[in-house]
Amino acid sequence: MSSNAYWYIGLSIVSLVVLTIVLVRAKAVRAVFFVLIMTQMAYLIETVIYIFGNSYFYRPGFLKDSAYYDSNMGALASNMLVIPTAALLIAVYRLQWRGILVAIALIGAIEWLWVKLELYTLYWWRIEYTAIGLTMYFPFARIVYERLRRPAAGLLHSALLFLCVAPILGTLHIVPIMLFMNRGYDPGWYGDPAHDTTAFSAIYYVVMSLVIVTATKMRRGAAWVKALAIALIIFGVTRLLLATDLLRIYAWWDPWYYCLFPPVVYLLLKPISARLARGG
Hints:
Keywords: Membrane, Transmembrane, Transmembrane helix. With about 280 residues, the chain is mainly alpha-helical.
């Protein structure tokens, strides 16, 4: 592990401690849902500008076998911990523009320091773009947190369900690939196989999230039947991807893992769906 890793680990630990403290003090289930929602919002933004837009590159030094997967680890630290934690602080404590601007300035300063220490490389992206994006992201976070107090129905309920389930599915999908190299996708979009795999994974987990949300919203059918159907759908997709050479599997446990964890997530989503429908 390189010296870069200690900076990322330190920032991640601080974010995790703050996140835990605020969640405990919030004493509201909606705070957990809020973190999931804002994490997925960060994931979607990162998919566009980082994965498909090649805007910047993280250099945490965790993984030696693949520079791109190593960069993904840095992206996870940012989008799963740092940014959602700041959003939670702002939302729970109802910080106004002064507090929001302080948070933006602090994140901008960290980004500047990361660039100077060569922990993070900017391509066409600029720190100013981060600041502009956060001036929209953080106020939006306050709106989301307050909206979660009230019952959600219809399309809003479906959108919130998607934003809650997608970061769980996306993280469970890509992390084993980065750590164990158990599978790879080959759409041929980029010269780096890890970049190809990451890009295709981003599309894959979004589609699977929509399937699970659809199953959750269906009123007919027992939960175990729909869970089995989700597993069978993923099994069929896996066979299709293998047949078309879009997918290569390198570990015996891979098909079992990818077919079984989404139905489990679906079963966890049902109580989330009920709580969003009640609000509070």
